[in-house]
Structures are given as structure tokens and as C-alpha cells.
Known about the structure:
The complex is a heterotrimer.
Chain A: H1 2-5, H2 11-23, H3 28-43, H4 50-75, H5 83-98, H6 105-128, H7 134-153, H8 163-170, E1 172-176, E2 180-183, H9 184-201, H10 203-213, H11 215-220, H12 225-250, H13 261-271, H14 283-302, H15 310-333, H16 360-367
Antiparallel strand pairs in A: 1-2
Chain B: H1 2-40, H2 48-73, H3 81-96, H4 103-126, H5 132-150, H6 160-167, E1 169-170, E2 173-174, H7 175-193, H8 195-205, H9 207-212, H10 218-243, H11 250-254, H12 256-266, H13 278-297, H14 302-325, H15 350-359
Antiparallel strand pairs in B: 1-2
Helix pairs in contact in B: 1-13, 1-15, 2-7, 2-10, 2-12, 2-13, 3-4, 3-5, 3-10, 4-5, 4-10, 6-10, 7-8, 8-10, 12-13, 12-14
Chain C: H1 2-33, H2 48-57, E1 78-79, E2 90-96, H3 102-120, E3 124-131, H4 136-149, E4 154-157, H5 162-174, E5 179-182, E6 193-197, H6 200-214, E7 220-225, H7 231-246, E8 250-255, H8 260-273, E9 278-281, H9 287-297, E10 303-305, H10 310-319, E11 323-324, H11 335-344, E12 349-350, E13 352-355, H12 365-371, H13 393-397
Parallel strand pairs in C: 2-3, 2-4, 4-5, 5-6, 6-13, 7-8, 7-9, 9-10, 10-11
Antiparallel strand pairs in C: 1-12
Amino acid sequence: MSAATTGQPTAGQRLAGFGRMLVSPRGAVFLLLIVLLVAIALLNPSFAEPSQFIRFVQRVAPVAIVAIGQYFVIVGGEFDLSMGSVVTAQVVIAGNLIGQDEAKSLPVLAFMLVFGAFIGLINGLIVTLLKVPSFIATLGMMLALLGATLYWTGGAATGNPADGFREIGRGGIRGLPVIEILPWSVVVLAVVLLVAIWFARRPFGRTIIALGDNPTTARYSGTRNWWVKTSTFIISSLSATVAGVLLVGYAGVHPSVGRGYEFTAITAVVLGGVVLGGGRGWVVAAAAGAFALEALFTLLNFAGVPSTYRDAVQGAIIIIAVAYAATTVRARRKGRALEAPTIPPTPSPEPAPQTSPAPAEEQDAAASARPAPIPSTQRADNETKGGS
Amino acid sequence: MSAATATSARRGRRRRLDASLIVGIALVGVIIIGAILVASVGRNFFSAGNIRDILTGMSVLGFVAIGQTLVILCASLDLSVPYVVSLSSLIAADMMAGDPANIPVAVLAVLVVAALIGLANGLIVTKLKVNGFIATLGTGLIIKGYLDTNYKGTSGEVPWEFQLIGATGIGPVPVSTLIMLAVALAGAFFLARTRTGNHMFAVGGDEQVARLSGIRTARPVIVAHMLCSITAAFAGLLLASRLGVGSPTVGTQGGYDLLSIAAVVLGGTLLMGGRGSIWGTIGGVAIFAVVDNVMSVMQVNPFLKDVVRGIVIVAAVAVYTSRSLDRRRPRFGSGAAEPERPGDQDAAPPAVAHEKEASA
Amino acid sequence: MRRRYAVASAMVGALALIALAGCTTDPNVAAPSDDAGTTEEAVEWFDQELYDKQYAERSVVPEGPEGQPWLQYINAEMTDTSAYAGTGAKKACFANASISNPWRQTGWITMNQQLQVLQEAGVISEMETRDAQDSDDTQIADIDYFINEGNCDIFIISPNSTAAMTPAVERACDTGKPVVVFDRGVQTDCPVTFIHPIGGFAWGIDTAEFLIEELEPGSKVVALRILPGVDVLEQRWAAAEKLFSENDIEAVDYFTGADPAEIKKIISDELAKGDVDGVWMDAGDGAVAAIEAFEDAGVDYPVMTGEDEMSFLRKWKETGLTGLAPVYSNFQWRTPLLAAQKIFAGEEIPKEWVLPQSPITAEEVDQYLEANDGMPDGHYAKFGGEDLPGYPQVWQDRVIP
């Protein structure tokens, strides 16, 4: 965490920071990911070949993008359960509206983005203006959107969209050395991740974390809570839209594409050490959580674990991984929990605006969070906090 | 300490009454609209068969939601309930094996297994500090793996004597509903009258403050998880009784994880814990059952049913929160996340809430 | 130091708890599994008697009107229905398991068009339908509601699961009204007729024999299955697995949930492990994703069995792979209403109405593609509604009633 966010350290410092991070609880997800990848490579050496590995990245891209979107919602203290249904709806929209007419690709893509943003806006407004807990608001959206999509299509889409549109999720730049093919999905994932990192480091991104950490102080500090929160839902729906575009290429149109993505994304984000209830987390770790989760599935495939046991193994590993991170943090903080502010004693960047190069206005807003008359909420590390 | 508990208990009771009242009004609204809609297709909403259909629909979800209420009061969640329901139905049906003499042993075994699962959930949440969402998602997957590996479809045989629980009724009221209401009564008593029950509100409201007040914070959470698994086991027993066999998919078929959470929140319990009531939850379950019943009688397209369900969930909770939540101060210090809205202090007249529900 | 100790103890605790979570359930469930027999996969689903019956039925020439397979029957023992004969339009009550997959949706559309015909003919006044949305408990409540409130003249039931629905179907029989069960069966012979295609074992036999014939011994087949625990699907796999193991075909099975993304991942992983010679599916939903996984990996197409879903037939034609489209006759959705017509007329009908079920072979693909031109991908080629009103518009628009 520190490596990525504290100014511009030298390469050596970066490396040392990276090493520290791996063994720290917050870096547990990277350690888990490395262990899993090594295990896969041992079981099946061809997996380590660049051309195979890039295919693996291509496959993870949609899940990782959904996890990145979910990260912003969770770190702001909310849930988005509607992401899976948004993915399904977008996949079906692409299939039915584009059809075999490639010329419609761009207009429909634009429509899909608008539609995604609209769903996010509705979610956000229900949560912020109507004060419905996000778990319920997005659960309602999940049911309603999937039902409406199925009703519209009679349960099965007309067919796959034009191959040109599917190329985004299926194809790539071919004939490259070493990796043979650079799938567009990987490019999209890289862009989304970079944008997400940039966004998370901008004042607005910090405000989201401040809001998730303590909405009362954030409000006293002048944050427009409703807009910040609503924007996180728009981000998550847009990321689900992008994932839908990739999935319609990768897998094709089917009403079950996207099913369960909301839980996969939440699991990935939590594996990445992001705290449910908001206020703490790193977007790259959330994406790494998605990679770890998919690597786990792949490992189970390669290890020949009988299909019926896979869920059990997955469940056990999730619990152990999260327990590792949570108990280590707790052990480290033991005795200080009641006196110390919520801000971790480690040089955590998010709620420490004094050292950050934020513009003046936002700095004031965030800085006042610390000496605010109302103390930060004291929370155990992994406590659930349902909604607003 | 005891004085504080007594005060908070009294305040809690007043609040619970209030919450249940609003849910009750919403329920009455839904019933009135439902009755009109049902009458419009030439049916009688209040006929014995229809009442029975609604109450039967309430029983299973009711059991699960009672337990879920306790867990949510403690600011946790239980997503493993569908699998506990399935496992319970299988253990019950397999152990009964068609012989009425086995019923007591089977029921006992089911409850013990469920309690142990709940204990595991509670320990993972409290001792390993894994939040409830992830912990129970994980244990749910573990149980699912066990079910998929060891059971191929339905299994066992439930003796006729036990099937009677699911099949008989007093007038239009099924026995299962009466049992469910008895469990709800016990749950409400537990919350209001026992120390652990009171502590659940405290721990859910703000764990740190509760700890500073001298409450051992782990215990209420563990007990809540155990009771939740046990009520899920009741649901599994009831399903075994209705199906005549155990089924590894019967829990997931009902979607009891998310639906029970929705029913609890619909019933006015705060998802973040610390405030809520069993009776509100029963009201929430009843709203779901009535809505489902009306849609079935009207022969609504199954896909549109989900759309309506989604809208009802959000609309009902929106009505509730806008009318009741904001005008209360957070109970313990600054733990609660929702800010006060001073302008919204006045209680809404019930009629307004009703109207809003109607338009939803 | 202290921290490391804390971590270690926490991890030990976590492992112990996971172990505890696993162990506590074991002893209690072990007891009943004594009479449940071995937990060895597929053994429980395999039923030699049923297997032999369906094996034989595959080669029987069905009786009944030519060109109307939905009225044909195999090896039927007729039953007298004169007790139910009556005049005037009757009310049908239909307890449907769900319309949650394309096969059921297509059938449901066909059924409604058939209903229209019978309503115009004055045989059926109305059909009240309750959809259980894949839930046993809901379907039991639905049947009880029909018994109490429905004023039904005939019950049509498509059970969500076999054993669990038996008590409710028996209650429906107790009303004295005729009961028609189709698709999945129940464990009672009280219904007037049970309508179904030959069955899951026949599917498994057709597909496995095809793959065995087309592949060398020792070849590897990936079996893509939708979900565990559903008898019609489990029987398909039970028969295929038995034949594969008898004929030295290495088969690995996966559950996909019919999710094409999942299917593609599975096939990609299998291709990364080594060659895949054949693909077997217990339902054709998602077959296209499986084929595309081979394309993306740049390897030869496998020998493949899918289903008569249009998406598979189109991709099959387009790629020219060696394939077979087994059929779980979708036209069976017409038969219950036609059976009701016969019952009210007091005509004899088969007690167990076994409908023909024959796969679409490579020679027949063109014919079925042509006949179903313009249909959506989720449509089933052997839907059997060509002579019904609204053809083809209703199926093309796919408006679910």
C-alpha cells in the first residue's frame, strides 16, 4: 500500500516496500495470488508460458473490472448487489440491439454506457435520498432488472451480436512476440485499473474513503454526501457495463452470463483486504482479489478436484484468507484499539490528507475530518456496516 | 449497569412497538390493495384456501427470518441459511427413514448439527474477526460442497406422522404457521427479557461502547448465529415435512438468504444492527407472502413477478426509513452512520405512510 | 514476536474451526447414508431396468398419427377414461415448475398456442397457471391452492422434482378429477396419464454411442453438465458415463450452471492441460461457448453432442464439425392439453405416454435449420408447433404469456 501511494520513492524503497507489503496483512492477497499462481504453474507448467498466462488475464478481466467497480462502492460504506444483473442486462442489450448489424455497434455501446450510468444513478438516489440501505436498494434492483431483462427477451436473447463487437472481448492484437496475442480485454483491464488508481488518488476518490470511514465527519467537513455516494454507484454500474461488453465477446449472449458476479466481486474485494463498511482499502488489492479468486478456480480445475468439492474448498480458503488479514491487524493493534483513532498507525495514505498533494479546498475538507468534534467511529476491522 | 440496561430495554420496547406499527400499517395497506386486485379477477382474497396459501407461504421464510433478525440485530449477516435448511431437511428425512419412532432423535440431531454450524459461524465472526457476510458465505459454500458431494437428489423418507405438521391446519391456519408464531413469540421474549437478548441490541448498536459498558461482546453474537441456524433448521424440518423427503436444493430454491434479509429490513430492523424487532420481521414476511399470493392469483408473468418483488422491497423500505429512521438519535454515541435530518422531526401520520405504500 | 505468535495461533484456530465445521456434520449424516448405500458417483442414478427399457424404446416405431409426433406413443398400455367424459368447455389448472430455461420457455409458448386452438374448439374454457419458479415448496402450495380454490376440471402438473411432489399429486388425485403429469414423473400411478419422451438414459445412450463411434479408444471427452441433483439430467450423465467407462473413453465432468463464460473457462483449462477430443453436454444451452473455446485456442473442433437448440444447430452448420443434436422432445408441451381433450371425450389414452425422442443427425440439420429460419437462438428445433396459430411469428417474437 505504501509503495503505491507515498509520493515518488526510489526503486530500492519501492522494492523494500513491496516486500513489506507482501507479508503485511494488507498484502496478504498478493501473497495468496503468488502462491496460487505458482501452484498452478507447478501442476501445469504450460500455464506459466506467456501466451497461456495472458489468456488467463483475459479471462479474469471482466471479474476484475467488476471488482474494481465494487471497490468504490464498498470503500464508500455500501454494497452493490445489482452488478450481476447489470452485466446480464448489458449482455442481452448488446445481443438484441446490435444483432448482426456491425454499424450499430457504436450507438448501442453509447446507449449501454448511458443505461449503465442511469441504473447507477437510480441506485445511488434510492440510497442517498430515500435512505434505503444499499443492500436492500441494490437487491431490489437486482431482482427488478433481471426480471425485466428476461421479460423483454422471453428468457433467451435473439442471438449473439456482430462479430466485430464481440472482438473486444474475444480478440486482440495478434502476431506479437512472446505473448502471441494481446487480448483487448487485457488492454481494457489495464486502462480501467489505471483510471481507477488515478481516480482513487484524486481528491474525489479520497472523499469517498473519508465518507465510508466516517460519514458524520465527512458531512461536517462539507462533503456533498449524496453526490459522492451516488457517483460510486454510477462507477460500479459503468464497470459492470464494461464487464458486460467484454463478456458478450468472451462468452456470448445468455441470461446466465453475469449471474453471481455481485458475490464474486464482493468476495474478491474483501479478499483484497478492503473493509466491508467502508473507509479502508486499496483498489489494486481489490483487483488482485479477483485474480486470486479466479486463480483458485483454475487451480481447482487443474488439480482435478471433483466438481462437487470445489465450493467447499473455495469457502474454506475465503474464510482463512480473510481471517488471516483480520486477526493479524487485530493482533497488531491490540491494546490501542480504544484510544487510537480509526486511522491505522501504519502510514496509511487515505485519511491522511496532511501529507497528500490534494488541492486546497479538498484538503481543508478532509483535514477537518481529524479534529472534528465527533470522534471517529471505533470499529473492529472487518465489521459489517450495512448502509446509510 | 443494570439501571442502564433497564432504561435501554424500555426505550427499546417503545421503539419496537413503533417499528412494528408502521410495518403493520404497510401490511394492512398491502392486504387492502391485494384484496381489491384479487376481487377484480373474481376471486375471494379472504377465502379459507387463499388464507391458507398465504400463511403457508409465510411459515418457512418466517422461521428463517426470525433467526436472521437476531443476527442482523448484532450487526452481522447469515448467508449460509439456505444450505442449513437443505442439510436439515436431508438429515431429518434420512434419520427418520419412514419410521415415526425415529422422529425425536432425528429432530434432536438436526438441531444439534444446526447449533454447531451456528457456533462455527459465530466463532469465525467474533474470534477470527471475519465479517458475517464473508464468514457465512464461506460456511455456506462448505456446506454446499458437502451436500453436492454426498447427496444425489432427494433422499430419505419422512413418516406420515411428521408430514402431518406440514399438511394439517386448524381451520385455515396451518399448524406450521402456529409453530412459527410460537417461535417468534419466544424470540421476542428472548430479546426483551433476557440479558443476552438485551446485549444483542447493545452489541449491534456499537460494539466498542458495549464493551466499555462491561458487556462480553462475543457471546451475544455467537448466540445469535446459533439461534439463526437453529431457526433455519426448523425451516428445514418443516420443508421435509411438506416434501416428504429431504432435498439438497430446497434451501437454495427458496432464495432464503437474501429474501430473509430483505424481510428483516422490511420489518424495520436496521441492517447495521442495534435496532429492530421480531414482530416487524413477521410483518415483513407477511407482506412478501401477500404480494406473492396476489401475483400468483393474478397469474402474473413469472419474470414480472421478480420486477414487482424488487420494487416492493425498495418501496416498502423507503417508506419505512423516510418515516421513522431519521428522527431518532443514534442509540449509542455516534456509532450509527445516518445523520439526523432535523427538518423531518415530526412523525408522519399513519395515513400518509399508507398512501405512499399504496402508490408503491 | 508477539504479533507473529498471535498470527500463528489465529491461523491454527481458523484451521481447527474449518475442520470443526466439516466434522460436526459428518457423524450425524453418516448414519442415514448406511441405507442410502454408497456415495460413489452416478451409481445411485443408474437404474439398469429403466436403462434397458429406454434402450429398447429407442428403436420402437411409435404408434399414432403420422407426422404428429406429439400424439404418438411407444409401447403403450391404454387406459380407459370414460369416467371423466363430459360435455362443454372445462377448466384446466396447470401447476408449472418454472419457465427458467429456454427449453421450458419454448414449450410454454407452444402450450399456449395449443390452448388457443382448444379454447376455440370449445374443449377448454380457460387454463389457470401457477408458476412455482423452480421451488418444490411453492409448487406444493400451488397444487393445494388449486385443490381448494381452483374449481379445476383437470389438473396438469409439470413436477419440479419427483419424490417431493408425490404427496401433493396424490392429494390432487384424491379430488376425483383427472390428473395429467408431464416431463418429470412422480412416484405414484394415480395420475390418469404420465406424458414424457423416452427419457434421460436414451439421451445418454444416443450421445455416448455417437462419441464412442466417432472417437478412438482412449480419447478424452469433457462432459459439461448444468447442475447436480436433477433426475432428468442425472440420468443422461449416468448412462453416458457408464458407456464411456465401458468403452475406454476418458470423461471428466463439470457443472457449469449453463453459464457460457464458465463453459469457456472450463474448456480453456482442459485444452491447456492437454488434448480434448470430444465434448458431451447434458443440455445444449451454452454449446456455442464450448465450440468458441476451441476456436480461440486455435485447435481442431471436437466431436460434439449438443441439443436441438437453434444456437447449437447454427454453429454446427457454420463450423461443419462432427456433431449430434440429441433431443428432449420439446413438443411434449402440446400433449397434456391434447390428452385433456381425449380425457373429456372419454377416449382411451396411454397410461404412460412415451413420446418419440430421436436425435437430429448431420443429414437432418439443414432441414431443421430451414424449417426454423428466423427463430431466436434459444428456440428448439423440435418444438412441434408448425401447425398452430401464430406460427412462426409468436415463436420468433418469443413473448412469454
